[in-house]
Amino acid sequence: MSVSEGEKRRPGEHGLLPGLCRVCQSPHRKDYERRMAEGWSGRRLERYSREIGEPISVSSFLNHREKHFKGELEKLKDERMEEIARSRIRLGMEAIEVLKSNLEVMNKGKEALAKVFANPEGLSGTMMGNAARLMGEIRLTSDALEAKLEKLRGLGEVDEEALASDLTRLIGLLCPECRVRVAEEIGLDPGDIVKTARGLL
Fold first, then answer.
1. Domain boundaries, the chain
2. Which segments in the chain show pLDDT lower than 50?
3. Per the count of CB atoms within 10 A, which of 105, 114, 177, 199 is most buried?
4. Global pTM?
5. What is the Cβ-side half-sphere exposure of residue 9, based on CA atoms within 13 angstroms?
6. Are 139 and 86 spatial neighbours (Cβ–Cβ below 8 Å)?
């Protein structure tokens, strides 16, 4: 006697119908797909499925990823890269603002120190305090710039080459005088924007 279609697809031990995608049927599908989007391997997903009491094989996860989730993965990847690009632009512009701020404070600090050393006998506590405060501000803005650069380094798959390229474009936005000052501060030829950018890394 032939077996009916319903009998063939009677739910098994974990409530999953044979012959259909096990991941699609799972109540944890969204969870699995989120982990796939985060880059989990089939082996890791298999271990995880066993941990939550719903053992699904590596091949089932790979089959689901290829046949039922590939399009969504590509879309998520595109969205992720767009977000990385937006973040790089935003952080890069913030880094330039910190650079400009640093340059302004350095100029004030140099002027204050020049006055101090021009008349060392007449040093006042106030003048020394102002010079120290300005030097402190320079350190703060330098730390802020380094923090912005670290964020740029940590964005997704952004590598040093990409970061150097970003900084080259950003330094190009500075006025010629500011570019010269940046280059001088790190001891480089002010005419070479690329080397100036790499000198900041």
1. 14-68, 82-199
2. 1-9, 11-14, 157
3. 105
4. 0.34
5. 8
6. no
